[in-house]
Each structure stands twice: as structure tokens, then as C-alpha cells.
Amino acid sequence: MAGRRKRKGRLGLLILVIFLALVIAGGYILWQGGYLDGLIPPPGGASDSDGGYSDGGSDSSSDSSSDSSSDSSSDSSSDSSSDSSSDSSSDSSSDSSSDSSSDSSSDSSSDSSSGGDIVTEELSIHFPMLGNAYTGDCTLIKAGDTEVLIDAGSRQSSARTISAYLDEYCTDGVLEYVIATHADQDHIAGFVGTKSGGSYNGILYEYEVGTLIQFARTNKSLTTESGNPTLYANYVTATEYAADNGTKVYTALDCWNGENGASRTYELAEGIEMSILYNVFYEEHSSDENNYSVCMLLTQGSNHYLFTGDLEKEGEEALVENNELPQCKLFKAGHHGSPTSSNDVLLSVIRPEIVVVCCCCGSDEYTDDVANMFPSQAFVDRVAKYTDKIYVTTVVGENGEGFGPMNGNIVVTSVGGGLSVRCSNNDILFKDTEWFRENRTWPEG
Fold first, then answer.
1. Sequence-ordered list of residues with C-beta below 8 angstroms from that of 24, at least 6 positions apart, any chain
2. How far is CA 8 from CA 5, 14, 16, 20, 375, in A?
3. Which residue, among 335, 236, 324, has the nearest Cα to 292 in the 3D structure?
4. What pLDDT is attached to residue 43?
């Protein structure tokens, strides 16, 4: 009897051991398959990531938990729209950090309310420095795998600086779209570049360009008084070189009218479109070259981003009259923040949340009047009614010599509808900079 009990006891122990072994093995299999991720928190918990301005939105949570383990966790436990948001959020942070890693000190974050999810490809809009103390425009838009370059200022020597920046993002050497807003040097010089060994190193020579959209009119001459080719003439030669190598070349008027193979709207990526707006000066004469600027609206779901080149007040009035402009998340300040652009007639319609100024702040390149140096006091007074989120690329050096970064390279990123701003030097708003305190005043109220 005692022997039987002993055998039964051993048999029970054996069954218990086998049961425990099966439980452990099953748990290991479930853990390996990721089925326990939602039950086990990541080491150290979730932490808020640094970043420039952020308007919150559905992607803020995934942005703020940007390490790979928390991205995977939210990926496996959320619906398809937030999957898209968190997936893109990790790309966004690495994209922005690669830009800002060179000399970024710190990016603080601020939140405000935003709309619902926008399910599109990741969108980033870049405003790089141009390598000198001159004011000029250059904007890179990256929508999914598509790149759009708007302008290439400020001097021919800027081509090298722009190319170095582009190569960080345009890894296949193809710019699907290029827009030349108007024929002033500080917008087209980098398309030509400098000449060495008989060839130019400008953007139109160094990159494969799919479609070039350019100004429909200009007052520029092809030759100087002494008979030499002007910069504009060299730009025309560069566009001809691009066309000979397969680039489709259209004017903004071609796009608006849908003529010669051009379209008014181009889909850049899923849910992201680029639309050429109507500017009356595509067809009419203006004594001011700036008014010939190609104007473009970028749309990502319910988010809109406006680019008007150097359009002046007369052009802005016509733009508002002839187009149904929406409220805009981002406005690339007209004419570098001059006193003659970014007027109330336009601002009151688009009511921008973020304004980026591409200029060498405080330079006397165009005027000795400090109040009218870019970004001008008049510009500040008008924009302040709608936002204080003004960022500026470059600032003149001490005693007016040389240059340096104000915010530096500025990158506005949108994933899932929420916006963030990250800058390579710092994320300080223009109104909080030392230069502003010494040279500008913020309007009361």
C-alpha cells in the first residue's frame, strides 16, 4: 500500500513538472511572437522626445515615444490610421535629426490643439541655409519618395551648399519637380552654379530633373550692356540643358491652363498634392519682377502650405481675388519678410500658424534702414496678428560682417496631421532672439 502511494506521488510530481514545462514553453513562444507586448511595458516607460514647435495631433504621442520598441508597440496595438502615423513618426524623427545633428543644441517642444488624423505619406519641408551672407530662397519638399525643389538662391556659389544638403535626402539624384519662381538672382543663381573646367555645377546640371515649372514672364535681358550673357541667359542655357536630358519644362501659365502637357495639380505622394495657383502676372506686365512669381499651394489632407516667391502687395491682392485660398499651417514669408510683402490682404485669409523667413537677418544688402532690413518691422507687425511662430534661417555676423545661423536649417515635418519644427542651430522663435530684442519690437495686444 505504501509502495503504491509512493508510486502515485512520483507520478503526480512528474505530471506537475511536465505541465510547468509546457506552460513555460508556451509563454516563451507567445513572448517571441510579440503577443505579450501590450502587457509588458518597455524598460523605463515612455519618455517625451525633444523637438521644435509641435502642434500636437494624433502623431504627437507616437513622436513623443520615438524609440523603436514603443513604435513597435503602438504599431501592433492600434488601427490602420495610427499605424501609418507611428510608422512615419520614426522616419520623421530620424529625418529631422539627421538635419539637426550637426550643430543642434536642443529642441524644446510646445503643444496646441489640432485636428484629426490625416493619413498620407510623411511630408517634410526644408528651408536650408545658403552658405553666404546674402538673402535668397531655397525650399526642399519631400513627400514620401518624391522631392520638389523651389528656387536655388542666393548666389551661384550656393549650388555647392544646396547640393550637399539635397544629397542627404535626395539619395537617388532625381528631383521629380523643380520650381523657379522668378528670374531674380537670389532665386535662380544656384540652378546655374559656378563654372570650373568648362562646365557648371548648378542644380539643373547635377541632378536629373523630371519636371521644371518656371515663371511665365520676365523683364530680364539676355545680355549685358557690354554684350556678355547675363545670369538669366545662363539660366536659360541651364534649362535647355535639362530639357535636352529629358526634363519636361513648363511655365506656370501652362500649368494653370493645362496646356503643352502640363497640369494644374500634381500628386506628389498618397494624399499630398501640389497645385499651381493663378497669378494674373503670368499674363500681364509688371514693373516689379517679384510679381511674376510662381505661386504654389501644397495640400496634405486638411493641412495646407503656401509658397508665393517674392510676390508683392499688388500680386497678393490678385492672388486672393483669383484663388480660393484656405487657412494655412505654413507660409513661406513673401519676399524674405520685406515691408512690401506678406500683407494683410493675404494674411487675413490664410491666417498662418507657422511662418518661415529665408533671409540673412539684419543684412544691409538692400537698405541701410534697420527697420526695413529683412525681416522688417512692418512684416513683424502684420504677422504678429496671427502667430508668433516665426523662424529665420540666417543672421548677419557681428558688426555686420559675415553670417551665421539664426535658426539654421529649418525643417517642418507633418506625420498624421500634426506639425513639428526642428532647426539645426536652435528652435528659438524670432521674437525671442537677441537680434530681435535689439532691433525690433513685438506689437502689444
1. none
2. 5, 10, 12, 18, 90
3. 335
4. 36
DSSP 53: B
Cis ω on the peptide bond leading into residue 338 (within 30° of 0)? no
Cell of 390: 516665426
Low-confidence ranges of the chain (pLDDT < 50): 1-8, 33-51, 58-115
Name the phi and psi angles at 152, rounded to 5: -150, 70
Q: Which three cell numbers stand for residue 383?
A: 504677422
Give the pLDDT of residue 75: 38
Q: What is the pLDDT of residue 235?
A: 98
| Cβ atoms of 216 and 260 closer than 8 Å | no
How far is residue 82's CA from residue 346's CA, in Å, rounded to a whole number? 34
Give the length of the chain.
445
Give the whole-angstrom CA distance, residue 385 versus residue 444: 10
Nearest Cα residue to 262 out of 216, 297, 206, 218: 216
| pLDDT the model gives residue 80 | 36
Cis peptide before 375 (omega within 30 of 0): yes
Look at the pTM and tell me if it is higher than 0.90. Answer: no
Q: Are 244 and 238 in contact (CB under 8 A)?
A: no
Q: What is the DSSP string of 125-153?
A: EEE---SSSS----EEEEETTEEEEE---
d(CA 314, CA 297): 19
